Amino acid sequence: MRRVPSRRLVAAVLLAAATLAPAAAIPATAVPVAWTARQDMAGSSPDELGPGLVARLDKAIAEVRGQAGIPGAVVGLWMPGKGSYVRATGVADTTTRRPMSVDSFVRIGSETKTFTVTALLELVDDDRIKLDDPIAKYVPGVPNGHRITLRHLAEMRSGLFPYTSDTDFIHDLLSDPERTFTPRQTLAYGFRHRNTFAPGAQFQYCNSNLVLLGLVIEKVSGHRLADFIHERVLGPAHLHRTLFPRGPGFPAPHPRGYTDQTLSGKTADATNWNPSWAWAAGAMISDLQDLHRWAPIVATGKLLSPATQRQRLKTLPTGFPGTSYGLGIFKTNGWIGHNGSIPGYETVTVYLPSKKATLVLMINTDTQWQGKEPSTLLARAITEIATPDNIYDKDSAISPRP
């Protein structure tokens, strides 16, 4: 009798990833690997925040890592006028004990959504689509597609059943995590279920929404999603170490990634699992340097018109206290951005407009501790010290899914 993984697995894993186009805009081998942390930190020292604050952060990170069983972590905190904190702690490989490094590439899971929705909103600015267009205008066969709009999809309020909650999908993915899924294949798992509510009625995190938006971008632009994001988002943002991988390809250096989202429930090495199932919802790869640059671009709308950015930032309740969701981004106690979770890796990239502060976290496990995402525990501990008036995910009993 097969063991069916918990919904937590599907939610965390699949929320963060989506099906990847077989041909990406940038091959993994084309990404330069010679960068060092100092090159993008404007000459800053990790101790610029002051020895007292640095010591408290060091201690808090060590405690959370030990408590939650996080093998390795990369933390970047930049607070203009106060200084910065950049640290890599723990191990990138639990077997060899190779240390974690600040120049690591990691799978960013659902942070991919910020790139996909930015690309979508650029098409809005180009007057090629409208947010209140029904998805049926672009993609046939979507349940209730004549009433579900692109806005509903980007806001996570479509009512579509999440394909990552389908038990057959979970089993098929975990039985062969190196297989390739197409966007249409993943959507089919969700479309065989009834919709969960009327469009706009409530919030429900659903990767099906982002896969559909990826298909819209491809149809309207005439380009593969990876190519369009590369040309219209990554290039203008000067993100040279962010990419859609070709299959399970992974540029070096990168840590091994560990997950308990397996058919047996035992921890496995998910480093080379194929993220194709996540595509527009979570297949991308990035690093500390690029995520540091990306956070304020997303939060301030640097690539979008002011009117479109205002729509993006119009967030609605999620059901998680203190956390609301807009168009592919969330707000939690002042912080704006997104988190990500995919088997083996978790990330957080957020910006605090009131202090122009940026926080980036990258860890090499997605195994929860007492029902909480380890990246959320780490972000909360850091912000309790560095920004006590703006604590990340302060009031939620369970962190919002990436």
3D architecture notes:
The protein has 402 residues and is of the alpha+beta class. It has one domain: Beta-lactamase (3-Layer(aba) Sandwich), CATH 3.40.710. Helices cover 32% and strands 14% of the residues. The protein contains 12 helices and 12 strands. The strands form 3 sheets. An 8-stranded antiparallel sheet has the order 2-1-12-11-10-9-8-7, sandwiched between helices. It has a two-stranded antiparallel ribbon with strand order 3-6. Strand 9 and strand 10 form a beta hairpin. Helix 2 (51-68) runs antiparallel to helix 12 (374-386), helix 3 crosses helix 8 and helix 6 crosses helix 7. The protein is globular, with a radius of gyration of 19 Å. The two termini are 31 Å apart. Residues 1-44 and 397-402 have low confidence and may be disordered.
List the helices and strands and how they pair.
Elements: H1 7-16, H2 51-68, E1 72-79, E2 83-90, E3 105-107, H3 112-125, H4 150-155, H5 167-175, H6 183-191, H7 207-221, H8 225-234, E4 258-259, E5 268-269, H9 279-282, E6 285-287, H10 288-300, H11 306-312, E7 316-317, E8 323-325, E9 330-332, E10 335-342, E11 345-352, E12 357-363, H12 374-386
Antiparallel strand pairs: 1-2, 1-12, 3-6, 4-5, 7-8, 8-9, 9-10, 10-11, 11-12
Helix pairs in contact: 2-12, 3-7, 3-8, 6-7
